[in-house]
Design brief:
32% of the residues lie in helices and 22% in strands. With 342 residues, the protein is an alpha+beta fold. The chain has two domains: 9-165, PurM-like, N-terminal domain (60s Ribosomal Protein L30, Chain: A, 2-Layer Sandwich), CATH 3.30.1330; 171-187 and 222-336, Phosphoribosyl-aminoimidazole Synthetase, Chain A, domain 2 (Alpha-Beta Complex). It has a six-stranded mixed β-sheet. The chain has a four-stranded mixed β-sheet with strand order 1-4-2-3. Helix 4 (115-132) links the parallel strand 2 (100-110) and strand 3. Helix 1 packs parallel to helix 4. It is globular, with a radius of gyration of 22 Å.
């Protein structure tokens, strides 16, 4: 072979390695998918069955990434959980509309294909899909030398769900005197990591040697699909919100109707140790609330009479609790009191 020939591989793109990775994804996802589902991995498009027994099906689609949490994964060299985060960030948005996730696709862009790293990411994605009861039906892996520095990469996810028109959660269902429940988060989820990384750098903290931070910063986002879908099937939710970027105030106001207000008592919020740690490092309450979930990963708006029925669908760790109610008002969100960070 002529060594002077210009090839794609010499430019930094290894098609053979990419094909090997696609083959791996096809094999591992087929094992999880079962015989009755379509095998789409490696094709040009993905095919999926539409669930039966839905009279007037509506499609809901979401997309998201995990932000700079991938830099934490790079620092501690652990990649088997950010795939769960990737699925969570999209499917937790789907269920806010009342939709059941059906399938998921991923997009991975990387400087150079690292088989062990990509395998770990994909295994996390498949685990997230399993928790969400949806299928990984396809995706894309792009080797992009020159765009990303050595060892750098990014991931994005795309989820599609189905909801019966009658089951769609919209603002019209939320009424005065409804209760607002906080469903605990598992930790930071996938928001606020640029601020966390800035703080860690400024304080010269070695995450690899700080066992508390090492564990907390890579902890995967809680996926709320199973619990929320059961509540929707039982008509026990009037509205819900996924608490992501912008924190509790910005996300809860997105579902509140005009002339109504979400009145929230911050004293009732149960924080987690990671947020207590962050608050002690000169981040004020306002910045905490608009950057992090502060322990509230998801919110439910329900009829007061249904409170006891709600709790049985959650484990002890993620059991919802009352933090406020829906009142009359034009501000959409009214925060009372202060969070107890102790």
């Amino acid at each position: 072979m002529n060594k002077n020939l210009i090839t794609y591989k010499k430019s930094g793109v290894d098609i053979t390695a990419a094909d090997k990775f696609v083959s791996f994804i096809s094999k591992i996802s087929s094992k999880k998918r079962g015989k009755k589902k379509f095998n789409n991995i490696g094709g040009f498009g993905s095919i999926s069955n539409i669930p039966k027994n839905i009279k007037d099906p509506k499609i809901v689609a979401c997309t998201d990434g995990v932000g700079t949490k991938i830099e934490i994964a790079n620092i501690i060299n652990k990649y088997d959980t950010i795939g769960i985060d990737l699925v969570a960030m999209s499917v937790n948005d789907l269920i806010v509309q009342g939709a059941k996730p059906i399938f998921f696709l991923d997009y991975i862009s990387i400087n150079k294909i690292n088989f062990s790293k990509l395998k770990a990411i994909i295994k996390g994605i498949i685990k997230g899909c399993k928790i969400s009861n949806c299928d990984l039906v396809g995706g894309e892996t792009a080797e992009m030398p020159g765009t990303y520095e050595k060892g750098k990469f990014d991931i994005a996810g795309f989820a599609v769900g189905i909801v019966d028109k009658k089951k769609i959660l919209n603002k019209k269902k939320i009424k005065k005197n409804n209760l607002i429940l906080a469903v605990p988060s598992s930790g930071l989820h996938s928001n606020g990591y640029s601020l966390v990384r800035y703080l860690v750098k400024k304080k010269k903290i070695d995450i690899k040697k700080n066992l508390f931070l090492k564990k907390q910063l890579i902890k995967p986002t809680k996926i709320y699909v199973k619990e929320i879908i059961k509540l929707i099937d039982k008509d026990l939710i009037n509205g819900c919100a996924n608490i992501t970027g912008g924190g509790l105030p910005d996300n809860i106001k997105r579902i509140i109707p005009n002339n109504l207000c979400a009145e929230i008592d911050l004293k009732k919020i149960k924080t987690l140790k990671i947020f207590q740690w962050l608050r002690k490092h000169n981040i004020d309450d306002k910045e905490m609330l608009r950057t992090f979930n502060c322990g509230v990963g998801f919110c439910l708006v329900i009829n007061a009479k249904d409170l006891d029925k709600i709790n049985k669908y959650f484990t002890k760790e993620f059991k919802p609790y009352v933090i406020g109610k829906i009142t009359s008002g034009k501000n959409k969100v009214k925060l009372k009191g202060k969070i107890d960070w102790s």
